[in-house]
């Protein structure tokens, strides 16, 4: 594949990712369905009850997955669907997921299943959720049932998606349900999430000794706004420590560093078979808050586009906790698809040039979805969704991604056709 912009993906296979609450639709009794019913919680006033109607359109969406030529698909389970009341499981819902997984396997697409992706049943949330160590036993019950029911179709699992995002947004910034604001509470939730992952990791391996189990960690680069400014430097270091280093150490190794404390019954060890990396952006820091640098490329949500950061966080993670790496989420909000192909090209080019053991790349997202606080307003999909009609349309970036997957790389001709004309938006603030 000659040419200045060409590359091959010799070791990294391609997939796409989704999450159950964001695409399935319907009225599952989750924390997010209830939260979105409160006025002012969601930017555009929408809720997850419409989403993509994926629950009723699995076959249609799996046909689109085949058009994308992907080898892998990361999907989530809606805990509230399969366990609508504590200890009571819905066999019909479980059979629905079996059918969905069976369709993927028949199509030659390997599933990676996420057990918890920000989605709590209301009964679990009302009982305190991850505020209490005892409550994490409910996650074990759910894990045992789902691995037992689906394990013949799936042997790769993500226990918890982005524990740091879930905990900080729900219990420190108060932006997500249940809307609490407490550093002390945040440390309790961090601790219990890590303990729950470790318990689930051990349980899954008891049931499936050869399974691959990991966590999807949200990682980002933190840089001081002014490199020589001691306050900016200290803030960047502190944010990185609190946001990702502490929780990663607890999840991966069972070691709980300050401000966390070692929970009873949890012992240091190795609790991962691969690392999931969700990477989107870089934070420019002048205080204990996210910031964006001047005159940098940004997406529709104002997040900086910084492709080399993917390798920076992967290098740190692999150097600290060696193991196989999956990029379990990477994508960008871009409603007119004007720079998504460039975004994909630049991030995959970083992977192709790296000698890190990055085995998978899952683009976020397969299709436009209900994007939490942003509702239906943020467009991440390779497939465009008309929410009113539920019509799906392959975007140009989707066609580009499909060609990359088919060719295992990018040719110069592909670059000229899909990428050369695309220009990023710049931050002018």
TrEMBL record:
<dbReference type="InterPro" id="IPR001360">
    <property type="entry name" value="Glyco_hydro_1"/>
</dbReference>
<protein>
    <submittedName>
        <fullName>Glycoside hydrolase</fullName>
    </submittedName>
</protein>
<dbReference type="GO" id="GO:0008422">
    <property type="term" value="F:beta-glucosidase activity"/>
</dbReference>
<dbReference type="InterPro" id="IPR017853">
    <property type="entry name" value="GH"/>
</dbReference>
<keyword id="KW-0326">Glycosidase</keyword>
<keyword id="KW-0378">Hydrolase</keyword>
<dbReference type="GO" id="GO:0005975">
    <property type="term" value="P:carbohydrate metabolic process"/>
</dbReference>
<dbReference type="Pfam" id="PF00232">
    <property type="entry name" value="Glyco_hydro_1"/>
</dbReference>
<comment type="similarity">
    <text>Belongs to the glycosyl hydrolase 1 family.</text>
</comment>
């Amino acid at each position: 594949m000659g040419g200045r912009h060409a590359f091959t993906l010799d070791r990294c296979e391609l997939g796409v990712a989704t999450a159950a609450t964001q695409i399935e639709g319907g009225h599952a009794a989750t924390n997010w369905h209830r939260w979105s019913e409160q006025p002012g919680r969601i930017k555009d006033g929408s809720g997850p009850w419409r989403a993509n109607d994926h629950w009723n359109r699995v076959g249609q969406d799996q046909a689109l997955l085949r058009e994308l030529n992907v080898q892998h698909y990361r999907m989530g389970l809606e805990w509230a669907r399969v366990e609508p009341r504590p200890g009571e499981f819905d066999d019909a819902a479980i059979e629905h997921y079996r059918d969905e997984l069976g369709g993927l396997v028949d199509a030659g697409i390997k599933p990676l299943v996420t057990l918890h992706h920000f989605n709590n049943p209301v009964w679990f949330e009302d009982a305190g959720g991850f505020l209490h160590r005892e409550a994490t036993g409910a996650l074990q019950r759910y894990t045992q049932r789902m691995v037992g029911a689906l394990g013949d179709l799936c042997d790769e699992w993500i226990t918890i998606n982005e524990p740091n995002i879930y905990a900080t947004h729900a219990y420190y910034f108060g932006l997500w349900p249940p809307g609490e604001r407490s550093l002390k509470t945040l440390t309790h939730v961090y601790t219990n999430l890590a303990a729950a992952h470790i318990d689930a990791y051990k349980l899954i391996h008891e049931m499936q000794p050869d399974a691959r189990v990991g966590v999807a960690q949200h990682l980002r680069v933190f840089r001081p706004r002014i490199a020589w400014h001691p306050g900016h430097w200290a803030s960047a270091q502190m944010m990185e420590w609190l946001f990702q280093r502490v929780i990663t150490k607890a999840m991966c190794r069972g070691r709980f560093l300050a401000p966390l404390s070692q929970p009873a019954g949890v012992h240091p060890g190795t609790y991962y078979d691969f690392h999931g990396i969700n990477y989107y952006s870089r934070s420019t820091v002048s205080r204990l808050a996210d910031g964006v640098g001047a005159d940098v490329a940004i997406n529709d949500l104002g997040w900086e586009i910084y492709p080399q950061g993917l390798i920076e966080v992967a290098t740190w993670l692999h150097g600290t906790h060696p193991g196989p790496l999956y990029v379990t989420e990477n994508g960008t909000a871009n409603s007119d698809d004007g720079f998504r192909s460039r975004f994909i090209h630049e991030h995959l080019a970083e992977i192709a040039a790296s000698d890190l053991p990055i085995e998978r790349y899952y683009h976020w997202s397969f299709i436009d979805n209900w994007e939490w606080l942003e509702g239906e307003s943020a467009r991440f999909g390779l497939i465009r969704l008309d929410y009113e009609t539920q019509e799906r349309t392959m975007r140009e970036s989707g066609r580009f991604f499909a060609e990359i997957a088919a060719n295992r790389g990018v040719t110069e001709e592909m670059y000229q056709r899909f990428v050369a004309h695309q220009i990023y938006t710049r931050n002018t603030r």
